[in-house]
Fold these 3 entries.
Entry 1:
Amino acid sequence: LALYFHIGEREEKCIIEDIPSDTLVVGNHKVQRWDLHMRDFLDSAPGLGMFVTVTSPTSEVLLSKLYGPQGTFTFTSYISGEHIICFQSNSTRFAVIAGSKLRIHLDIRVGEHFLDESGIQAKDKVNEVNIRLENLIEQIHHVTREQEYEREREEKFRKTSEETNSNILWWAIVQTLILISVGIWQIKSLRDFFISKKLV
């Protein structure tokens, strides 16, 4: 996931990322500030940083840290679900004068695995093959976890759909019974009315 978004200097912006359990997430961010004279977003001064907060689906804070105008944050998800990643600048200017716009460039990689390049460049070919094999096994585990998570979501969606269909069916039956009852009552009322008026 690579994107950028604009926020005010004192504003907090959050994104939601659906992440399987036991998955490493790596995020890179870069902050640019709007320059009134140049009329463009320029690289931020070193003093301006970003508070990054990551919250799990159970509202547990997995990460809360201040980074510079450019940085990398990592965390591991412990349970599957929607994780909330929030960004807020560390600007201390008053809200009245802190009207500057910021542009946040964000690159999030889910299930990232790092290769040890020094190990790969080793002369011993057996070590190189072992390292690459371990990395492939980690990636296979990540794909397997993602597939299990998707199966869980699909099963949950199917159960919800079946419950909704069942409720709709019962509601249709109740509506039909009500309409039949009202129809019978109307026919009886009309017949009694005609009889009372001696029209029949």
Entry 2:
Amino acid sequence: DLYRKVFVFRKDPSDAFVQLRARLEQPLQNFTLCLRSYTDLARPHSLFSYATKAQDNEILLFKPKPTEYRLYVGGKFVTFRLPEGGTDWHHVCASWESATGVAQFWLNGKPWPRKGLQRGYTVGAEAAILLGQEQDTFGGGFDFYNSFSGELADVYLWDTELSPDKMRAAYLSLRLPPALLAWRSLSYQVKGDVVVKAQLLE
């Protein structure tokens, strides 16, 4: 149980990552991914990378610069642009629905304009799931200048699109529905220079 704890990725650039294990019974037609991050990196970096043998960017949450997030599904991406701001914790939720191809992005409990992405696509189930690196091959192929440095917490992945109420609940750390990946019962393995520490701020 990682309640009120964070992963600290200490080095920049880094070869470190955290490998996650999810119980995926079948391919995904929908998903919601939520996580909290805290970094002062100005260069591109990967937050969450879900790769299959067929597609290295099956699901990828990537930050090319401080004012942009990219959500990839099946190798294609949409960009969500942020206002210029200082360094602070970002709570991000990204969801996607195959039937409509609608991608949603929420930052700190607020929705951004929805975008279209990969309508009719199916996300594969046999996945390597990593925090802190972007996979260019299944489970590897890292570019260390896309590595994450900073703090990550509250990682969740659901096989549904969460309702707006649940998106806000995730931001407020309230009770959440059962998830494929859940911070309170995370199955993970640290590879390299990553330490688990108590959260400093609310």
Entry 3:
Amino acid sequence: PVGVDNTSRRKFDKEEYLERARQREQREKEEARKGKDRGPPVQRQPLKHRDYEVDLESRLGKTQVVTPIAPLNQQAGYYCSVCECVVKDSANYLDHINGKKHQRALGMSMRVERASLEQVQKRFEALKKRKDPSTFTEQDLDERIMKQQQEEEERKRQRKEKKKEKKREQAAQHEPEDIDPDMAAMMGFGGFGSSKK
């Protein structure tokens, strides 16, 4: 039987592989040039305070009809217009807006600017000015407590009056208007209502 001679080594075309290597090196150089042409990496601002209030309670306790064809900003949950995503609950929404992806979309890095001594001193001065030392005294506290107690007593009195008014209305509704007195006397009672008033 005649077979294939497989005892010799495989021969490679060295010129072909050298040409492939040259082409690959040329592509890598071009990509490196394109990267340099883009300029330096983006310099992001340091992290800073939010200047708006996060609204977590506006839709608390409300129901909403959810349809699969609704746009993202009308779906159930919290919509982030910066990242264009919907987060299902408030805890995850807070994590999202404090997270790296959202902060990068806003153009901030996750690093905080280091405060200088002058900035800290200015901040303390601003807080001292904002806090008025004469805002709280014991007299003010006593007056506020008295006022609160009076308001509570007024609320209790109004509640009692409302209850009495409701009872009067119910009694007036249950009282029959046209009862024949002869018929009532013959049956042995004064009315069909209850005896409690």
